[in-house]
UniProtKB/TrEMBL annotation:
UniProt keyword list: DNA-binding, Sigma factor, Transcription, Transcription regulation
Stretches assigned to the RNA polymerase sigma-70 region domain: 66-133
InterPro entries associated with the record: RNA_pol_sigma-70-like (IPR039425), RNA_pol_sigma-70_dom (IPR014284), RNA_pol_sigma-E_actinobac (IPR014325), RNA_pol_sigma70_r2 (IPR007627), RNA_pol_sigma70_r4_t2 (IPR013249), RNA_pol_sigma_r2 (IPR013325), RNA_pol_sigma_r3/r4-like (IPR013324), WH-like_DNA-bd_sf (IPR036388)
Start and end residues of each RNA polymerase sigma factor 70 region 4 type domain: 161-212
Name of the protein described by the UniProt record: SigE family RNA polymerase sigma factor
Amino acid sequence: MKAATILAAPAHGGPMCAYPAPTWADALRRAVRRLVRESARGPRPPTVSAPPSVPADFGEPGIDELYAHRRLELVRLALLLVDDLPTAEDVVQDVFAALYRRHGERLTGLDNPDAYLRTSVVNTSRSVLRRRRTVRAHVPERAGHAPSAEEPLLLREEHGEVIAALHRLTRRQREVLVLRYWSHLSEAQIADTLGLSRGAVKSTASRALVALRRELEAPR
């Protein structure tokens, strides 16, 4: 599946649309603009829009149903964390393979498949980035390296600037913003996914928006 198709698809398993949906990038930009206004006016209680509704409960899905319903959403999440479509797809394949080995076809003993999958994608993406840093520290990048043919489709004008800025943040800042504005998770859900306190999530999100503002406003 091409990166453009991945971005055009809805975040929560609904029908695909035929055009890119920059909602998450717009939401980040609005948050940055709100930060600027609040800085000028002085502090006030933050307002956060309610996350969109998620599909009805699966009941007791098997791994095939879960894969069909959640794979695309998880690839999109991994893509924003690792910045590379083939690697993002590998991350999700590895997550589902590990899920099958641990819980079987009927997901025996797994109470919250969505939370398990999100946490697994984040942790596997972290492992990928650690290996990538290690390789780059010891192996010079090949001359003539260029993005894949699909990457320009991903980095459209309405997405590319925000994606590039996100990848200049710290890993934790990027994870918190992606989970909040892309996956539409609450502070409590982000805390569970990343193994942080809600206070740590809130302070990280605040610092991340300040850092993102600097990155978006910096001349290039």
